[in-house]
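Closing statement on the FE2/S2 (inorganic) cluster sub-project.
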Amino acid sequence: MYSEKVMDHFRNPRNVGEIPDADGVGTVGNPVCGDMMTVHIKVKDNRIADIKFKTFGCGAAVATSSMVTELAKGKTLDEAMKITRADVAEHLGGLPPIKMHCSNLAADALHSAIDDYRKKKSK
Ligand code: FES
């Protein structure tokens, strides 16, 4: 039912945790199931220098969160804003249709952390 990649990221999630002096933080809740995810980012020279996540959610949410942090790390903020839910699912070798909504959290939390950083910077 799950691809090898999904299982790998679920068993060994990358970049789990928080960044105490984060430049941007995004928290989103999934309206479908009530699960939640928080993304912390550290920005340097307009790029995502570091990124960590915490997910209170299902296995697919953990795997997609982990994948999104890998995709975003090192990217410019504009590039990271363009990472879509579909990109995340695709890089994981697909998700079962019933679990596609779980991939929403990861991309949304990333974008919300970038928005937070940009808001703070423009103050
Ligand atoms: Fe909630 Fe997957 S069931 S994120």
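The chain has a mean pLDDT of 95. With this model delivered, the sub-project is considered complete and its resources will be redirected to Aim 3.
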